[in-house]
Amino acid sequence: MKINNQRQEGSFHSILLYTPSIVARFILLLHQENILIKDNSNFQIQMATDNSSNSRQRLIAIAAVVIALLLGTNIFLLINKTKQDAKNQQLTTQLSEAEQLKVQLEKDYYEALSELEQMKGTNDELNALIEEQKNQLQEQKNRIDRLLRDNGSLSQARTETQRLKNQAQEYVAQINQLKAENEALKGQTVNLSRKADSLRISLQEKSFEAEELSTAKAALSSEREALAMENTKLAEKVDIASVIKVQGLQVTGYKTKGSGKAVKQNKAKDIDNLQICFNTTVNNIVNGGRENFYVRIINPIGETLAVEDLGSGMLDNKETKEKVRYTKSAQVDYAKSEENVCVNWTPNIPFEKGKYEVQIYNKGFLAGAGNFELK
Length: 375
Prior knowledge:
By secondary structure, this protein is α+β, with helices and mostly antiparallel strands.
């Protein structure tokens, strides 16, 4: 473009230089024509006068045309040069502005990168966001560089440059806001951590107190159990001491006749009723009153004779902690003296031969025992 401008400027200057020479030559031709007219003979005067007048008119006309053409050319070239100078000035201005924009772009871009880089810290998520923002700024800069290489896009490049600057400012503001939020969260985390520590300490204290209470409770429970066991033992001792022992145990077999009279028998096949008699002993620990005695008859094969409808039942053996079946019970008004007590057992079933055992219980303890044999 510069070479074409120089060629046009050279042609224009050449025309301007040769224009006065051409005009001078036409004037010289006119002058020579006048001299020739004066030197001709009289014979030719009239004819030369006419011819010279015509030639002069022609020359004047030609000169006028040439001069007009030259002036028109000069005017055209002058206008063209003015336009070309304006265009060159515009191109120069555009190139200068493009360079300025490029310099400004580099300055804004690297300042933004530096500021973003300085904002990096120990937060990985925040650092990743900063890297993403730097990549976006790099893409924006590359787009502006492409626009700057195209001189016709300076306006758009200028707009994009300003947008990059604004974008960088927004990124910085966003990072600052996130940092402020992180600091606030850190403060909340510290407060929550302190509260958690306080709660943990309080919980430890409460746990320690609970352990102490549990230990004290366990100790009290152990003491209570020990006392309960001791009380149980004492109660058992009291119960054992309050048991009314029996003695003089006797068992007699009877056979009831048709007349209703009971006759003693010692053979199993002839017996339909057993009478168990025993004597109570004196126990000064026990207050006088009604006492229950439980008679247990065990046959030769180890079975307890029992019929529920005839008063048989179960009792708690406080010595063995087991349930024991008894044959029949008897209630006695005990007057703290020796008394004879008899219990009749008529099961309406035949008795077996062999040796029988009799146990007498009072208050859950064995008060006396004996045996007998049926033949």
